[in-house]
Amino acid sequence: MTDPLPITPRTRLRRAPQRGAFDRATVYAILDAMPLCHVGYVLEGSPVVMPTIQWREGDHVYWHGSAAGRGLKAAVEQEVCLTVSLLDSFVLARSAMHHSVDYRSAMIFGRPLKIQDPDEKAAKLKCLIESLYPGRWDLLRPMTEQEVKATAILSMPIEEASAKIRQRGVVDDEADYARPIWAGVVPVRMQVLEPQADPRNQQGINRPDHASSVELG
Amino acid sequence: MTDPLPITPRTRLRRAPQRGAFDRATVYAILDAMPLCHVGYVLEGSPVVMPTIQWREGDHVYWHGSAAGRGLKAAVEQEVCLTVSLLDSFVLARSAMHHSVDYRSAMIFGRPLKIQDPDEKAAKLKCLIESLYPGRWDLLRPMTEQEVKATAILSMPIEEASAKIRQRGVVDDEADYARPIWAGVVPVRMQVLEPQADPRNQQGINRPDHASSVELG
């Protein structure tokens, strides 16, 4: 996990290089903190940025969708960029210039493969469910062959990746600290609220612990 | 605001067309609810998905960065896709297949222009500051000519755009409702926490209202 990731022309930071991190532990912590990601691919010459849910298993990242959808088809074996971002704070400085946000983001470049084997696909979907809701998979109505077939899963090795983190709060020009201007940070976070049971649940069913243990951020 | 947006090959939804919305009011509400966006552009043949802060004024969306950075340079007058996404709920169904998330997202395609005029640039940066922190601009140390010069601002008309919204909660196969499986939703939201004053603030400075009025989501 502390293996360094290679710094490539695509992952090297030209601006603010002190914000960059190139170790797997830092990148993986960001991926694991937020399932929402944005996948960029090129469709008929135009970039498309698609929000979707990602999950990680070891040194691979996965996302999925309809086998019939054009988004996944366009990404298979093509260059993509998968980005996960967490907004942590708004930074209010004494000059407009130094307003900023604190954040954590991870960016992965690569060419995803489509998983073909039905058993491997089911195993990866189990991994997705279990990563969000530990213990849930075995409680569910089992997947049908047709459902597995209708789901496309893309797999991408995490080989060319970087994290970018700003966690500095207010940093003003030295001369501006003497000004009578309020500066500070407004922290934000993803809040997980109380689960809401489906009104059509069978009577007497207890809410499993995994419904109230989702953690983000 | 209720003007329809044209449905183009890039914005038409092939899958789940009932999730699509093509009116400005819906798209603008999503942009205005979340300044964090992901901009996709093509750099030397590869897609790059960059998290950044967007703001809207009328029928244009803006983002900014260092005038020296390669990210903005690569996007100027090129095809980009700007996406804003809000995760609203995790949906726990009775089968793996129907697990989902409720969300709101907006996607804008276009070719951004770089704003050249320094006064127009300053006006747009004022709009950014004021959209997040009403009344703050006039309290700040004024921007210098050099700061305006060092900041690049991209402007893109909102002409080809769509929203995609899932807000349905649990939708299971009819036969599965009879199963003794807990189903429900776990709502999530961006929470804005108490502002934290910079320890280097001058003594006796009151916190302005705009520091505690940030709203997201």
Structure notes:
- Two copies of one chain form a homodimer.
- Chain A has 217 residues and is of the alpha+beta class.
- The first copy, chain A, has one domain: Electron Transport, Fmn-binding Protein, Chain A (Pnp Oxidase, Chain A), CATH 2.30.110.
- Chain A has four helices and eleven strands, in the order βαβββαβββααββββ.
- In chain A, strands 1, 2, 3, 4, 5, 6, 7, 8, 9 and 10 form a ten-stranded antiparallel β-sheet that branches.
- Chain A starts with 19 loop residues before the first strand and ends in a 20-residue tail after the last strand.
- At the A-B interface, β2, β3, β5, β6 and α3 of A face β2, β3, β5, β6 and α3 of B.
Largest sheet of chain A: 10 strands, antiparallel
| Range of strand content of chain A | 35-45%
Terminal Cα span of chain A: 19 Å
Order of helices and strands of chain A: EHEEEHEEEHHEEEE
What is the assigned CATH homologous superfamily of chain A? Answer: Electron Transport, Fmn-binding Protein, Chain A
Low-confidence stretches of chain A: none
Structural class of chain A: alpha+beta
User: Tell me, what is the CATH class of chain A?
Assistant: Mainly Beta
CATH architectural arrangement of chain A: Roll
Topology-level CATH name of chain A: Pnp Oxidase, Chain A
The radius of gyration computed from the alpha-carbon positions of chain A, rounded to a whole number of angstroms, is 21 Å
Helix content of chain A: 10-25%
Work out the oligomeric state of the chains in this entry. Answer: homodimer
Give the domain tally of chain A: 1
The chain pair forming the largest interface, with residue counts per chain, is: A-B, 95 and 95 residues
- Overall pLDDT score of chain A: 95
